[in-house]
């Protein structure tokens, strides 16, 4: 049948690499012309690929290759690719069908509203559901203070550009940190001051000095499951940071992008220590659901309302109604809570396996970070090994990792840190992957030693 030919052709393009994870697929119109077939035939082919969780659809946008997709069937003798690089959610745990049902419900409920511009702040009924959902994260607020955004990165980008009531200009941020936030600072030309996230978190005395002497407008922090280190601040540290911000008139942007994954019910967000507006709470649904939805939220004080709405209007007028409505249904139905419970267990198992593998294979060759939950961790390589050098070396061993250079401000630049994400790695491959990383570090160190000895012999 012709639709099977289309499926085979798309699969071939993915296997060959001409279509990569995250790439947008050809439109239905383009494929009808290419294969001289009907739209229904192409839609049937795309439907089959969706069932296999190879592609996913984004309303009003098109079809995309699932992030981190790798073919399930290998040629005989072909080694596994162990992907510590891809940072999207585990594709096999994503609620494609459940969310498709919610999209269909949203179309039926909001079919008339979809032909008009919606509230810039976000769908009112969704904000009611979000306020209820946030209570589970110890964020107690009202729908009027919640702003729906096209992914948390949009909220961060807009906030960097806004004037704040304290009249200050500069930004303080953890080092390393999310590369998108660093790029937002660069785009807006803001002056940035970094504070290092070490194995014990941040130095509060140094943070106080930065707040005291550097005209800090806001402090950006990932309070739990830090990207890229995986570190989570203790409740005591969070409270102390809030107290310093109050003392020195600094606002805090708390990026709690993976707070849903925290199984520790006693872990509070910084927002809980000052819900008045000093702490701006930002949250994403990308890492726990479907990244292509581009949905997030920000909880803002009233004093930032008008400026933020103007900036949001200039950016995209409003976040798409269909995805907002679908998220509303997903939260209201209880599907989200069931999904998150599965995700917590999944990532907790993977993170535990990763830390055990670190302890077994890396103790003598490198230092590492991370936690027993969450998503990310880092490995700091021994000097003189460079992250990009190891990254390239590991590719030949079928292990993919990410270098963290873009996650540092110039004054904090490090070229010997790699980031690992556990999201796309099968549980039974985690230890093998870490073992290969450890072996790669040892091999590169051995080569350096051999070169040094050869150089001495030539002198």
TrEMBL record:
<dbReference type="GO" id="GO:0003677">
    <property type="term" value="F:DNA binding"/>
</dbReference>
<dbReference type="InterPro" id="IPR015421">
    <property type="entry name" value="PyrdxlP-dep_Trfase_major"/>
</dbReference>
<keyword id="KW-0032">Aminotransferase</keyword>
<protein>
    <submittedName>
        <fullName>Aminotransferase class I/II-fold pyridoxal phosphate-dependent enzyme</fullName>
    </submittedName>
</protein>
<dbReference type="InterPro" id="IPR036388">
    <property type="entry name" value="WH-like_DNA-bd_sf"/>
</dbReference>
<dbReference type="InterPro" id="IPR036390">
    <property type="entry name" value="WH_DNA-bd_sf"/>
</dbReference>
<keyword id="KW-0663">Pyridoxal phosphate</keyword>
<dbReference type="InterPro" id="IPR015424">
    <property type="entry name" value="PyrdxlP-dep_Trfase"/>
</dbReference>
<dbReference type="InterPro" id="IPR004839">
    <property type="entry name" value="Aminotransferase_I/II_large"/>
</dbReference>
<keyword id="KW-0804">Transcription</keyword>
<dbReference type="InterPro" id="IPR000524">
    <property type="entry name" value="Tscrpt_reg_HTH_GntR"/>
</dbReference>
<dbReference type="InterPro" id="IPR051446">
    <property type="entry name" value="HTH_trans_reg/aminotransferase"/>
</dbReference>
<feature type="domain" description="HTH gntR-type">
    <location>
        <begin position="1"/>
        <end position="68"/>
    </location>
</feature>
<dbReference type="GO" id="GO:0008483">
    <property type="term" value="F:transaminase activity"/>
</dbReference>
<dbReference type="Pfam" id="PF00155">
    <property type="entry name" value="Aminotran_1_2"/>
</dbReference>
<keyword id="KW-0238">DNA-binding</keyword>
<comment type="similarity">
    <text>In the C-terminal section; belongs to the class-I pyridoxal-phosphate-dependent aminotransferase family.</text>
</comment>
<dbReference type="Pfam" id="PF00392">
    <property type="entry name" value="GntR"/>
</dbReference>
<keyword id="KW-0805">Transcription regulation</keyword>
<keyword id="KW-0808">Transferase</keyword>
<dbReference type="GO" id="GO:0030170">
    <property type="term" value="F:pyridoxal phosphate binding"/>
</dbReference>
<dbReference type="GO" id="GO:0003700">
    <property type="term" value="F:DNA-binding transcription factor activity"/>
</dbReference>
